[in-house]
Amino acid sequence: MRSEITIPCEGQHTCATISVPRHARGIVLFAHGSGSSRHSPRNRAIAAALEEGGLATLLVDLLTPDEDRLDQQTRALRFDIGLLSARVIDAIAWLEREAQNLPIALFGASTGAAAALVAAADRADVVRAVVSRGGRPDLAGAALPEVKAPTLLIVGGADTEVITLNRTAHAALTCERELAIVEGATHLFEEPGALDEVARLARAWFLRFV
User: Which of 60, 112, 118, 160 gives 143 a disulfide partner, CB atoms 3.0 to 4.6 angstroms apart?
Assistant: First the structure.
């Protein structure tokens, strides 16, 4: 079952796509970043792999349509981790009300990874696992030691600057964590087989902890 929905956030609404396979064992909330959206072909491909593994997915836009138009012009909001993480927390609250008690995990890409980790620290009682793809977990800052959910950081082997930032975040985390490097992959994992490897790693992590 796949549906287009809206999620309330401080008197406004963000758009999302939810997909729930039969007998789902948990649900993974996708937090996009850096100008991306729920229509990201990379995250949709990973979501499809998770759904094949029996996990429901919620791909949510962290900006309202008006905010997204502003950000496309100014890039003023895509690094506003406070705003983005608040939207992830709103989506978690929505899932608690609407997702039939499914365990909740988070998948973050780019700045969405920082938002996911801040939300995981804030809702440590709910979030079961976190995966970051090519993310900026370092931007979660002081929230990193407060994350309790097992966290997997996935980075492309050719994405050298982001590897350094992820190593910094990995050292700051105190939860069970792992840094996985996809050899030969660049930031967007566009190389043959690279995104498939991301999906394999993410699915195995979620199925282990959700």
Answer: 118
Number of separate domains in the chain = 1
CB-based burial, 128-160: b 16+ in 10 Å, e otherwise: bbbbbbbbbbbbbeebbebbbbbbbbbbbebbe
Neighbours of 97 (CB within 10 A): 6
Average pLDDT over residues 185-208: 97
- In the DSSP assignment, the letter for residue 149 is S
The domain in which residue 150 lies consists of 2-209
The pairing of strands 177-182 and 26-31 is unpaired
pTM for the full predicted model: 0.94
Helix (H) or strand (E) holding 178: strand 177-182
DSSP per-residue codes, 28-41: EEEE--TT--TT-H
Residues β-bridged to residue 154:
133, 180
Which residue is listed with tokens 């949709």? 44
**Residue in this structure with the two tokens 């002081």, named with its chain if needed:** 142
CA distance 152 to 150: 7
The predicted-structure confidence for 104-157, as pLDDT tens digits, reads as follows: 999 999 999 999 999 999 999 999 999 999 999 999 999 999 999 999 999 999
CATH classification of the domain holding 168? 3.40.50.1820
Per residue in 200-209, pLDDT (tens digit) is 999 999 999 9
199: tokens are 């999906």
